[in-house]
Amino acid sequence: MSRAAGVELSEHLYNKDLAPTRRAGRTWSAYSIFTLWANDVHSLGNYAFAVGLFALGMGAWQILLALGVGAVLLFLLLNFSGFMGQKTGLPFPVMSRISFGIRGAQISSLIRGAVAVAWFGIQTYLASVILRIMLIKLIPGLAPMDQNSILGLSSLGWIAFGALWIIQLIIVSYGMEMIRKYEAFAGPVILVTMAALAIWVFVQAGGSIQVQGIKPMSTGEMWRNVFAGGALWVSIYGTFVLNFCDFTRNATTRKSIVKGNFWGIPINMLLFGAITVVLAGGQFKINGKLISSPSDVVQLIPNTVLLVAACLALLVLTVAVNLMANFVAPVYALTNLFPKHLDFRRAAWVSGTIGLIILPWNLYNNPIVIVYFLGGLGALLGPLFGVIMADYWLVRRGRVEVTKLYTQDPTAPYFYRKGFNPKAVTALLIAAAVALTIAFVPALEEVAPFAWFFGAGVAALVYYLIAERGTRYTDTDGETIAIASTH
């Protein structure tokens, strides 16, 4: 243990990756925040979701309205979450110590990390499928290597997956600053590529797209789908609104967060919606068929050079999304679990290895795993968010003694009872029961899209009602134990 600012820093709670970031020298500007969303919003998974709204029978304006509703809610939620990181400089696992306790924080960080590490493997697999398409197009002789199966994946599939796996681990090994630079590079590439793909489809469709819904819906059903679509859009980002502080701990000012979020969420999401409408509506106009994602359109490009360029852009996109959404969270979770033995780089390799050995292509092809395991973990993200936000904003009013988050002193404010805050755990369990019931009970199917909101709302309300009253909270920064944000 070492001593700083009158506090005994525990080696089980503190290392250079878990330490708060120093305010001076932070590098994440509004553009850095914007490029996070420029990449993540345009992910293949998000396009598949938005195209699914078209398949349900929603027309162009209804899809845009649903995405708009979700975007406004996300803009507000992400600002509140982001401000916490900018003020304290803390990564998510340490931020969780405020409400759950120095040991209870493992609950929230491991749930978030488990969801992310599974999706890291799945997203890498989906990217490897695109790489296989490109390789076979360039070298047709490789096609036989894509016909066999080794643990559920072809020989070419293993080569493609392994190459992308290594590339991502190398990038992450250089830390958050390298991730920032990669996102800044990838953002414009993705925006230009997706816009160009939409223009190409529009031209192929003769300058006309399917604007009206392809299935009849009653007025009530239409409005239900609009708001359900907006709610699900927020749920998709339930991971990000939880650990957005992992990125904004490096943000220069609150203004940079608001500005980056504004251009990256409402404005960028409307552009995303317009591209989705053109891709899905244009392709439907061409041959009366529905696409499942932009990769379906890419395969139809007759020019090999353009097809390869589009595939490369989609690979750049998927890597960018994986780095920010599915790599950072488990890396910090593992670092928080074993701070004496793991730093950011080592935790990255451990996380990546787990993402490999779970054979994610088999998970992706198993609906039970996707729906019940990953869906169940996802349903817990709302309750976690509710507890953490209620504690920070409503109970403490943003007052945190940062240095005391790193001590095992039983008299410290975040030790609670043996390192756990029973009130936070109680609120989490009650809200989790509500969220899981809404998400999985067939009789509640109509309200299932709103499970995240029910979980977050119930958790926040319960925690606020049972939280300690009359406690005087103090506010001290962590500058005395902080490290440079570019370490």
Automatic annotation (TrEMBL):
<comment type="similarity">
    <text>Belongs to the purine-cytosine permease (2.A.39) family.</text>
</comment>
<keyword id="KW-0472">Membrane</keyword>
<feature type="transmembrane region" description="Helical">
    <location>
        <begin position="347"/>
        <end position="364"/>
    </location>
</feature>
<feature type="transmembrane region" description="Helical">
    <location>
        <begin position="424"/>
        <end position="444"/>
    </location>
</feature>
<feature type="transmembrane region" description="Helical">
    <location>
        <begin position="184"/>
        <end position="203"/>
    </location>
</feature>
<keyword id="KW-0812">Transmembrane</keyword>
<protein>
    <submittedName>
        <fullName>NCS1 family nucleobase:cation symporter-1</fullName>
    </submittedName>
</protein>
<dbReference type="InterPro" id="IPR001248">
    <property type="entry name" value="Pur-cyt_permease"/>
</dbReference>
<feature type="transmembrane region" description="Helical">
    <location>
        <begin position="113"/>
        <end position="135"/>
    </location>
</feature>
<feature type="transmembrane region" description="Helical">
    <location>
        <begin position="304"/>
        <end position="335"/>
    </location>
</feature>
<feature type="transmembrane region" description="Helical">
    <location>
        <begin position="370"/>
        <end position="395"/>
    </location>
</feature>
<feature type="transmembrane region" description="Helical">
    <location>
        <begin position="223"/>
        <end position="244"/>
    </location>
</feature>
<feature type="transmembrane region" description="Helical">
    <location>
        <begin position="155"/>
        <end position="172"/>
    </location>
</feature>
<dbReference type="Pfam" id="PF02133">
    <property type="entry name" value="Transp_cyt_pur"/>
</dbReference>
<dbReference type="InterPro" id="IPR045225">
    <property type="entry name" value="Uracil/uridine/allantoin_perm"/>
</dbReference>
<feature type="transmembrane region" description="Helical">
    <location>
        <begin position="47"/>
        <end position="78"/>
    </location>
</feature>
<feature type="transmembrane region" description="Helical">
    <location>
        <begin position="265"/>
        <end position="284"/>
    </location>
</feature>
<keyword id="KW-1133">Transmembrane helix</keyword>
<feature type="transmembrane region" description="Helical">
    <location>
        <begin position="450"/>
        <end position="466"/>
    </location>
</feature>
